């Protein structure tokens, strides 16, 4: 049974975002039951909206926004419902020094009614709660633990890598090389 819910919680209502996106709930899934879908088509490179959030300790639903394990945000918009896929169609681009420029960008063409997904290791060095992925993509990694357990090339192949992930790989190589 599928329940389609068009009204996100009130704190998440944003005029533009609630017109273009909706939260889809799948009652057959216990844990990751909500997903975000779009009402319209997007081209690769389109900006879907801003990433806004509140600094927060790392949790299963925060997004890493810098090199430290303390650099995380709780996303304060409907985009909090964007789930992981090993073959993602959007990137959370928080590469700018200015949080006002952080945005979600289409990595490929996206159809109306399609679920939006991003590749968690593109932002997360180490997940607070590793999980067994069920994305069913031929590129599926299975157990997802974070970037540190995926090669940098594997992340690049999915279209986007956060600058701190590149930095953390470099730090690790330097430690190993020392
Ligand atoms: Zn997967």
TrEMBL record:
InterPro entries: Flavunoidine_N-MTase, SET_dom, SET_dom_sf. PROSITE patterns: SET (PS50280). It comes from the Eukaryota. Residues 19-121 form the SET domain. This is SET domain-containing protein. It comes from Phanerochaete sordida.
């Amino acid at each position: 049974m599928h329940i389609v819910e068009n009204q996100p919680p009130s704190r998440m209502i944003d005029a533009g975002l609630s017109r273009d996106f909706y939260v889809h709930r799948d009652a057959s899934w216990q844990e990751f039951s909500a997903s975000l879908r779009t009402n319209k088509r997007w081209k690769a490179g389109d900006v879907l909206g801003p990433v806004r959030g509140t600094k927060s300790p790392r949790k299963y639903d925060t997004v890493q926004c810098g090199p430290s394990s303390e650099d995380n945000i709780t996303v304060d918009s409907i985009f909090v419902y964007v789930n992981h896929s090993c073959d993602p169609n959007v990137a959370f681009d928080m590469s700018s020094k200015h949080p006002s420029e952080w945005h979600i960008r289409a990595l490929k063409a996206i159809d109306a009614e399609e679920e939006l997904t991003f590749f968690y290791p593109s932002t997360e060095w180490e997940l607070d709660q590793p999980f067994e992925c069920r994305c069913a993509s031929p590129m599926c990694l299975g157990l997802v633990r974070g970037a540190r357990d995926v090669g940098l090339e594997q992340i690049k192949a999915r279209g986007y890598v956060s600058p701190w992930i590149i930095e953390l790989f470099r730090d690790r190589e330097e430690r190993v090389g020392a």
